[in-house]
Amino acid sequence: MPATGNSDNQAVLLKLLLAKDEAGMRYLFDHYGGALNLIISRIVTDPEVGQEVLQDVLMRIWQNIDKYEPDKSRLYTWMARIARNASIDRVRSKSYRKGGKTDQIDAVVVNHDNLSESMSVEHIGLAKLLNNLDTKHRSIIDLLYFKDYTQAETAEALDLPLGTVKTRSRRALQQLRKLLKHELVILFIYSLLI
Amino acid sequence: MDIQAYINSGELELYVLDRLSPDERRRVEQYAEQYPEVRAELGEIERALEQYAVLQGQATAAPAPSVLDHALQRIRSEQAAPTTSSVARPATEASRSGGAAVWALAIALALALLGIAYLLVKSQAREDALRQSSTELLEARQQFTTLQDDCDSIQQRVEENRQQLAVLASVETRNVVLAGSPNAPESRAVVFYNPTSEQTLFSAVNLPAPPTGKQYQLWAIDGEGPQDLGVLDQNLTNDALLSVPYLPGVAAFAITLEDEGGKPTPDLSQLQVIGEVGP
């Protein structure tokens, strides 16, 4: 998807961070702050603690940028992993019980339903995207991506046979990719108009 | 190996989502190195999830700008700390170590000031203690002097008593009882007169306190008449034993009641007691 220019942005961001330039941190925060915060907020429910975790994540990225291996993953994938691990560490340190997870699943799905309603006009595209993404696909992506659910836990939560978690995630991602491509083309046209 | 089937299995998605076992993960990485299609597919999945998260995050989870400010503050404070070293930025490093030197100097200065303050306070305390103990020493010395004086006077008294006792115990001593005159029939006094050791002792056995403005005066009467032996203390106790001047050849001792201070010659009309020295 070269139309977005994401690949170039990633390279620039990496260069800035490696040079220990604060501008890198500002770009990182502006562009990925929401995405990282989203991952954190799905695991750490207390917003105040979530802010602390995000701050820690920013620090970890800053301090460990030289450990990032560009040929193994995209920079954002690496950062998202740091965010998720930091969140899990924080939640476990506060000895959240594992049993609590099952109760939170419904809340996750409910939140998604509220999401498309409460979204402001500028995010209509996303709302449409989320509405078009099948609920079962959205759930599996969110459980695997935004929460620390294992394959087995995801299977249990969505009442799926364990073997179908892989294929279900494949189908979910395929649908997401298709929708994103469409959405990003629209966004691209928008950006040309404005 | 059907690569398309492997791609369609969903394992790459779970790899990107970090939901694979270490063995499965290694296999994906191995295939990614081997097959460009796998690598490309992984990139597409990553991009899709990234865009999804960025879109949704910007819409629903934009963090407070203060988080960035705090993170930047931490970064700056960590860079200011001398522990972090970066070879890539020698200029910053130099100014950093300069800052560290200033800090070290400031800390050293603060420590020195603290040390001086401590010493001042301590020496002040020591001086106070010294002054205190010297005052105490002075007081103790005064007490000692007083005690020594007391001791001396007591020793003197003891010596006097011993000498008086010797007079009293001597066979040479004449006991002269001064009996009351018609002026004071109840009054009594005793004189111990020793011509050998030339000593005279006096004791007011029973003399009432003199009226205000009056004083008892002791006389020794010899061949030339009454000789003044001095006035008696106004609050003289009856059992006190006094050493009085010795005169040879005394025939009698007498006490008259005179005006305060005494007189050179006695007013014999005021005779209180009188006693003759025996042979």
UniProtKB/TrEMBL annotation, chain A:
One of its GO terms (molecular function) is DNA binding. Signal peptide: none annotated. It comes from the Bacteria. This is RNA polymerase sigma-70 factor (ECF subfamily). Keywords: DNA-binding, Sigma factor, Transcription, Transcription regulation. Residues 28-95, 129-178 form the RNA polymerase sigma-70 region domain. Belongs to the sigma-70 factor family. ECF subfamily. Pfam families: Sigma70_r2, Sigma70_r4. One of its GO terms (biological process) is DNA-templated transcription initiation. The keyword Transcription regulation applies. Gene3D superfamilies: 1.10.1740.10, Winged helix-like DNA-binding domain superfamily/Winged helix DNA-binding domain.
From TrEMBL, chain B:
Residues 103-266 form the Anti-sigma K factor RskA C-terminal domain. This is Anti-sigma-K factor RskA. It comes from the Bacteria. One of its GO terms (cellular component) is plasma membrane. It comes from Neolewinella aquimaris. GO terms for molecular function: sigma factor antagonist activity. GO terms for biological process: regulation of translation. Signal peptide: none annotated. Keywords: Membrane, Transmembrane, Transmembrane helix.
